[in-house]
């Protein structure tokens, strides 16, 4: 049975994901280190893991598998989830796959090295937009439908 896992710390699309999961009657798990208010929705569970930088990531990667969808902006977590057979979606609606995760991890590592070697290098992503939110809603619906058919 398909489950939707949300890497919930700093996730800007929790409410949107809940709407889609509710409409499709799919169980949704919000995974975090705490600080979130539980949803009254019976399809939504709040999973609070131990404090630690990668505890939520570890829990999600250990639990997800084929037929599941994971929402995260964390590329190493996305890679682990893809290897477990899950579908992965970023908050802006980008679908991650075995075909595109390698180059994205390489770019992430390169940018990390650049920032480490040049403390004045100020990089920053663009602001999260309404178009990103709309793209996310459409992509989540598509990925959940594909996961249900495959599972």
**Spatial order of the strands forming the largest sheet:** 3-2-1-4-5-6
Strand content: 15-25%
Query: Unreliable segments (pLDDT under 50, ≥5 consecutive)?
Result: none
Distance between the termini: 7 Å
* Percent in helix: 40-55%
CA gyration radius, whole angstroms: 16 Å
Global shape: globular
DSSP strand tally: 6
Order of helices and strands: EHEEHEHEEHH
Overall mean pLDDT score? 89
Could you describe the largest sheet, including whether it forms a barrel? 6 strands, mixed
Please identify the structural class as seen in this structure.
alpha/beta
Quickly count the helices: 5
Care to describe what's here?
The protein has 151 residues and is of the alpha/beta class. It is built from five helices and six strands. Strands 3-2-1-4-5-6 form a six-stranded mixed sheet, sandwiched between helices. β5 (87-89) and β6 form a beta hairpin. α2 runs parallel beside α3 (75-83). It is globular, with a radius of gyration of 16 Å.
Topology summary:
Blueprint: E1 3-7, H1 14-24, E2 27-32, E3 44-48, H2 55-63, E4 69-71, H3 75-83, E5 87-89, E6 95-96, H4 98-117, H5 130-150
Parallel strand pairs: 1-2, 1-4, 2-3, 4-5
Antiparallel strand pairs: 5-6
Helix pairs in contact: 1-5, 2-3, 3-4
Question: What's a quick, concise take on this entry?
Answer:
The protein is of the alpha/beta class and 151 residues long. The chain has helices at residues 14-24, 55-63, 75-83, 98-117, 130-150; strands at residues 3-7, 27-32, 44-48, 69-71, 87-89, 95-96.
């Amino acid at each position: 049975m398909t489950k939707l896992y949300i890497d919930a710390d700093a996730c800007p699309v929790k409410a949107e994901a809940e709407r889609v999961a509710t409409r499709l009657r799919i169980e949704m798990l919000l995974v975090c280190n705490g600080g979130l208010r539980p949803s009254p929705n019976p399809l939504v569970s709040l999973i609070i893991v131990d404090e630690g930088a990668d505890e939520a990531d570890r829990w999600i990667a250990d639990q997800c598998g084929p037929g599941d969808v994971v929402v995260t902006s964390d590329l190493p977590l996305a890679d682990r989830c893809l290897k477990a057979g899950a579908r992965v979606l970023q908050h802006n609606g980008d679908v991650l796959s075995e075909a595109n995760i390698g180059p994205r991890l390489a770019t992430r590592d390169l940018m990390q090295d650049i920032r480490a070697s040049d403390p004045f290098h100020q990089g920053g992503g663009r602001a999260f937009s309404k178009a990103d939110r709309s793209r996310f809603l459409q992509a989540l619906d598509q990925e959940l439908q594909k996961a249900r058919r495959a599972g």
